[in-house]
Design a protein that fits this description.
The chain is an alpha+beta fold and about 220 residues long. It has 7 helices and 7 strands. Helix 2 (about 55-60) packs across helix 6 (about 165-180) and helix 3 (about 80-95) packs across helix 4 (about 100-110). The chain has helices at about 10-15, 55-60, 80-95, 100-110, 150, 165-180, 200-205, and strands at about 25, 35, 50, 70-75, 125-135, 185, 190-195. The strands form 2 sheets. The protein has a 5-stranded mixed β-sheet, with helices on both faces. Strands 1-3 form a two-stranded antiparallel sheet.
Length: about 220
C-alpha cells in the first residue's frame, strides 16, 4: 500500500489557515443531493457544509454513470463531538495495546479520526459519502462507511486490495468524480473527502487552508 500521510503528521498541523469566512449551508435544503440519516443529530449539525462545497458536490454527482447518485452521510461535526470520538477511540486502542506509548496511540487513532484541533469535519470542510442508485440502494464499496482498520482488516483504506473487484470499481467511480470536483481523499477512509482544510492544503500544495474550525451552534 502506498505511503500515507496521516492526520497526525506534524506537516498537517503546521499548515497555516487563511479563513475565508464562508458560511455553512444546510444540505437538507439542496433537493438534488441525497442525505442519509444514519449520523443525524438532533440539531442537524451533520447536514451542514461550507457553501462552496455544494456546487462541487453537484459537479461530482454529474460525473457519475447514469443511475448513480452521491449519498451523503455526514459533513460538519462539532469540535466537542470530534474530541469525544477521538478520545474514546484512543482509549480503546490503548486498552487493547497496553505496550503502546501515548504518542503511538495518538498516531494510530488518527488513521480513523482526525485529532480535534485539525479535523476537516470541524471546519465544515469534509464530507463522508458513498454511492447509491436512484432509488437509494447503496452500492458495494467493500466496507461500511466509518468502518475502522481493526474491524475491517484495513479494507477501509481507499486502495485496499482485500475487497471485491466490484467494490474496487465503485470506489474508483466515486474517487474519479470527487477528485475532478477538487476534493481530496483521506487514504485510510474511502468515504472521507475534503476541500479547503489543512489536509487538503498539504495534499494539493496550496499555501494555506481556507476554512478554520467552527463552533456549534452557529452564531
Amino acid at each position: 500500500m502506498l505511503d500515507i500521510i496521516l492526520m497526525s503528521d506534524p506537516r498537517v498541523g503546521e499548515m497555516p489557515v487563511e479563513d475565508r469566512g464562508e458560511p455553512l449551508v444546510d444540505l437538507r435544503t439542496v433537493p438534488d443531493l441525497r442525505l442519509d440519516g444514519r449520523m443525524a443529530d438532533q440539531e442537524g449539525a451533520y447536514a451542514h457544509i461550507r457553501q462552496g462545497h455544494v456546487p462541487r458536490l453537484l459537479h461530482a454527482q454529474s460525473r457519475l454513470p447514469p443511475g448513480l447518485r452521491l449519498l451523503i452521510v455526514e459533513a460538519y461535526r462539532p469540535p466537542e463531538l470530534q474530541e469525544r470520538y477521538f478520545r474514546r477511540y484512543a482509549a480503546t486502542l490503548s486498552e487493547a495495546n497496553p505496550d503502546w506509548p501515548p504518542e503511538h496511540v495518538y498516531v494510530q487513532a488518527s488513521r480513523s479520526l482526525a485529532p480535534p484541533h485539525i479535523g476537516p469535519h470541524v471546519c465544515g470542510a469534509a464530507v463522508d459519502l458513498t454511492l447509491c442508485t436512484t432509488d437509494g440502494t447503496e452500492l458495494d464499496m467493500g466496507t461500511e462507511v466509518n468502518a475502522g482498520p481493526e474491524e475491517s482488516d484495513d479494507a477501509c483504506y481507499t486502495a485496499a486490495t482485500n475487497i471485491s473487484h466490484q467494490a474496487t470499481t465503485n470506489r474508483d467511480i466515486l474517487g474519479d468524480a470527487l477528485s475532478e470536483a477538487g476534493f481530496v481523499n483521506y487514504p485510510t477512509e474511502w468515504w472521507h473527502w475534503s476541500y479547503g482544510d489543512r489536509y487538503w492544503a498539504l495534499a494539493t500544495g496550496a499555501p494555506a487552508a481556507l476554512h478554520a474550525q467552527l463552533a456549534w451552534p452557529l452564531t
